[in-house]
Write a structure and sequence with these properties.
Blueprint: H1 2-9, E1 15-18, H2 28-37, E2 43-46, E3 51-55, E4 60-63, E5 67-69, H3 83-87, E6 91-93, E7 97-98, E8 100-101, E9 106-107, H4 130-148, E10 158-166, E11 172-182, E12 187-190, E13 196-197, H5 203-221
Parallel strand pairs: 1-2
Antiparallel strand pairs: 3-4, 4-5, 6-7, 8-9, 10-11, 11-12, 11-13
Length: 222
């Protein structure tokens, strides 16, 4: 979206995307198609670029093999659970994430505390997304009600996810997945053949994305 703005308003400018990952992690082919066909010369994606330091005063991002000076730096630091989780003693996976019982979303470190969304150590193939956090909340709420009644929680919960991405002001791509609880592995696993990705960016998906946003905001915020 930054590239789309620059293309319209500042065509002599350039957006650099420097990512520590070796490649685009989601909707790879669709994003690469957009980079090449829509924003060639305006957007440049550079993988394997791990940020080492930021010179705020000089507006310079320092990487292992180069320094990048920019008018605007949007720095995304290494991700982890928030300080409130750490101070509460909940972080117990890789020093960064909260392990949970996926049937209840209850912390495996501190009993009686239920944790949702990005703070958790994800199941296989489970995205860290707003939609997934919303699904976590539903699993937790249903389980908490059962626990308060002294009854068994569901042994077969299912969660789903959709992530929409605008590649222009009106055209969108998506990825969707369904995840079933696996009792043997005590985690959610993707359901083979369920979900998928867009065939191409489209304005129709743009309308779907805005409707999704309206609905999930209403669901989450009341």
């Amino acid at each position: 979206m930054v590239a789309a703005y620059l293309q319209q308003a500042k065509p002599k400018s350039k957006a650099l995307v420097l990512a520590a990952n070796p490649e685009v992690q989601s909707k790879k082919a669709l994003f690469e198609k957009a980079f090449k066909e829509r924003y060639a010369g305006i957007l440049e994606y550079r993988p394997n670029a791990e940020l080492k330091e930021v010179d705020v005063a000089g507006q310079v991002a320092r990487f292992e093999f180069e320094d990048v000076k920019a008018d605007v730096l949007n720095v995304v630091p290494p991700q982890r659970a928030a300080d409130i989780a750490r101070s509460a003693g909940l972080v117990n996976v890789n020093g960064r994430w909260v392990g949970v019982n996926w049937l209840t979303m209850e912390s495996t470190a501190v009993a009686g505390v239920h944790v949702l969304g990005d703070a958790t150590f994800p199941g296989p193939g489970m995205p860290k997304s707003g939609h997934m956090a919303n699904q976590h909340a539903k699993v937790a709420a249903a389980a908490i009600i059962q626990l308060l009644k002294g009854e068994a929680v569901s042994a077969t919960p299912v969660v789903m996810n959709t992530c929409y991405s605008f590649v222009s002001g009106s055209e969108v791509i998506h990825v969707a997945s369904v995840h079933q609880y696996d009792a043997a592995e005590k985690s959610f696993k993707p359901v083979a053949g369920a979900g998928g990705v867009s065939a191409a960016a489209s304005q129709l998906e743009g309308r779907y994305a805005l409707s999704w946003a309206d609905n999930i905001w209403a669901d989450a915020l009341g």
